[in-house]
Amino acid sequence: MCGIVGYVGDDAAPKILVEGLNRLAYRGYDSAGHALMNGSGIKIFKDVGSPEHIGQVVMKEKVMANSGISHTRWATHGGVTPSNSHPHLSNCGRIALVHNGVIENFVTLRNRLQQTGVTFHSETDTEVLCNLIASYYEDFRSEGHEDAFLHSVFAALREVKGSYGIAVMCGDQPGRIITARLGSSLVLGIGNGENMVASDAAAFCGRTNNIVYLDDGQVACLTGKDFEIFNLDNERVAAEICEVQSEHQEYERGDFPHFMLKEIFEQPEALRNSMRGRFSSDNSTTKFGGLNLEAKDLRRINRILFMGCGTAWHACLLAKYIIEKLARIPVDVEYASELRYRNAPIPDNTLVFVISQSGETADTLEALREMKRKGFETLAITNVVGSTIAHEAGGGIYQHVGPEIGVASTKAFSSQVLLTTMVGVFLGRLRDLSMSEGMRLVKGMQELPDKIVQVLQKASELEALAKKYAEYNDFLFLGRQMMFPLALEGALKLKEISYIHAEGYPAAEMKHGPLALVSPTCPSLFIAPEDEMIDKVASNIQEVKARGGPVIVITTEGSPLCDQEGIDVIAIPQTCESLMPILASIPLQLFSYYAAVARGCNVDRPRNLAKSVTVE
Ligand code: AGP
Q1: Residues 260, 369: one domain?
Q2: Atom of ligand 1 nearest to the CA of 492
Q3: Which of 20, 50, 145, 390 is spaced 20 to 30 A from 31 at the CA atom?
Q4: Which of 2, 205, 309, 576 is catalytic?
Q5: Burial (Cβ within 10 Å: 0-12, 13-18, ≥19) of residue 143
Q6: Does 58 sit in the ligand 1 pocket, CB within 6 Å?
Q7: Residue 78 shares a structural domain with residue 219
Q8: Whole-prediction pTM value?
């Protein structure tokens, strides 16, 4: 996912832009750049590589500038080359642009511009948009238009098809940035004598907590003193300034070597924040402020559909097991990327939930739009306030776990599973879940953070285990019932950050094929708490051991598996069955983290991956 930062104000722009762009590096990048407005026009610095790299180049140049725009690129149109990186400068040298999104009709526009003599130096759709704005600017300027710059942006955006989040500067108008969004999130940071724009508020943390969420189809003009918002018909739009409580340290690693480890250890507090204010006064059920659905509407729901991507999809699959158990409502689970094209026959009175940490995943967003188009009630579970999915769903639940910077999702996943369990209790208590059962589950949730602390205290055990298994190149993750989706998640965690090939299966599936993979070079990790399945899993473990397969078991303290010879055991505390997936996910996170560290992998920014996939 690309990142945008813009600054205009009284302070030195380069340092603010460099720091802001570095904070967006977690979104994924392959190149980065800055356009700075100094006394004699626009100066561009850009290159392949990290924002930190180009930031050092900029700071060495000691450019005096009070405004600028910056970008981290994750290549869509055109290869990873310096010329394809942003910012782009128009042929005439007056317009600089950074862009997130995809301009679908860029070839037609480029051909038209080339016929007017424009030459292109990159393969990108962004350079076309930059020169389209410049073309209109030259025309309007020669006609003496009162605001040629703003109207050239309007005119160009009315022509493009596709999605954009842009920030634009004009060399003739220092101290002014124009920004606009359609399908790619942008927030304004409103400061004292300065204003900013960014793809997410992380970029201006520590400078301002006053945020304006730009809506699709809106255009904002920023100066150091003021900001105005328009729609594409040049009509002023009222702006709502929200105060967000994001602190500096949320975006810093602190004493941790990686964001992922920090976020694993944040989970006790993160889950407390997810639960805060969401239990009834008698602790017999849960409550949510943002569902926008009355109890009578929810009682009419006779089916629920969960959809998401990646780890969020694993949370959806867990939601099926948990909500069907607690609320006795049938739950369907879909990959958002599949559902959006499948035209599935979905029964009336189906409630649609989307799960997305970033709230910007393209496939999830488009699947949500498809469900809304067909008239379904939609709710989102997401972690980013004001994200596009949060904005477009009919209602929802914010996770409140703080920014998740590591590409591998940890605290966001456990929070998603907790919140879907809370939804299960909420819906169940509107039906036939008893008060005593509701109270037992609520008590279990309230005790969960302390139990997670106990599991985190076993980090050194997991580190030793991970080092022992780090050199294997194949792994099976196995579990039954609610532990099956967790097996899928454990396999994803390991593969995405350590690059070890790992697959998750229902443990009972071993005999139907995966057992052929078992050998001394392919370990099997079983997630097997002491529940009604443990005897079945114990025999699966014997099947693996009998074929020389190394075995790791995550089980509960005191379970019969703790005393088994010849296997590696991680024992965790007991908790309610519906909450066990959350607790058992912690050792899986730690195991994959330490395995990746042992293999020297880039844990927070694994190869080929981005934190949020905002393009298809
Ligand atoms: C999780 O470890 C992965 N980084 C990835 O699968 C992620 O869960 C997926 O891309 C969905 O992201 P979202 O929750 O922001 O929509």
Answers
A1: yes
A2: 2
A3: 390
A4: 2
A5: exposed
A6: no
A7: yes
A8: 0.84
